[in-house]
Amino acid sequence: MYLDNPDALSVLLTKLSLSAQIYVNGDFCGTWAVDTGGSKRIPFHLIGSGSAWLHFKGRSPQPLDAQDLVVFPHDAHHIISNSSDEPPANQVNTSMSNDGDVTQMICGFFEFRNPVLFPVLASLAPAVVLNASKHDRDDRVPRLITLMLTELKNTKPGYYTAIDQMAFLIFIEVLRHQMQEGALGDGLLLALFDERLGRALNAIHQTPEAPWTLDTLAEEALMGRSSFSETFHREVGLTPMKYLTQWRMNEARQLLMKTRMSVAQIAEKSGYESEAAFRKAYKNTLGEAPGAVRAKLDR
Fold first, then answer.
1. Which pLDDT does position 114 carry in this prediction?
2. Which CATH topology does 8-180 take?
3. Whole-prediction pTM value?
């Protein structure tokens, strides 16, 4: 079996260069409180052993037990602490008492290294908690978590890279879990899981330079023109052609920043026969001329 037809979610995560990094595997004891929000990335915490409490605006304090995972898709501020009582702000991320029960906690970030024009994770809740006690027997998340904890314990050669890759896999499982639980609202992520819309999105993501029209995108989705247009707009929040333009401009921006291709070459690669039409579309979408991007880089 040749894997020559990747699914829409896989293509998007690859295009956006999703990465995962674990930077803390520590024992927290006594009185402690941690907040890793505000990094412009996607923080997550995994309770390896022991217990903790999640404090999050608008929610009651929530207990976290061994192998519970919490992810903050919108980089929201939060507090993970030893107590159900929320600590004062001046005691968060500071040295505190070292006596008392011990909790092992793994902290890390997920990150899209390729900036995008639209919020891919907008349909996810501000805080996503996966409780180990609620996992099904065949759920992949606890198996991946167990593997990760084993790697962290044994520290065999290659473990540093292995745990980051396992975190990457866990993130994909989190997205699948939210879909299966019906926890996704309308948005790009939900559309990626839709078999019909996913085909059209995949076509855009893989070959944005193709001469797509509303009719040809509807054909990709195996839908009628009107039904496709209405469903796409409702779920993604943009018309198909507007989304196509935004994706083309996102790809063009990366080419401007990372290559020395001329604007004319990038215009052609973005599906525009006219450089002037490309420049106009770029400025209308991103609010600046293509040349301004290069000027910033050359300073």
1. 81
2. Jelly Rolls (2.60.120)
3. 0.87
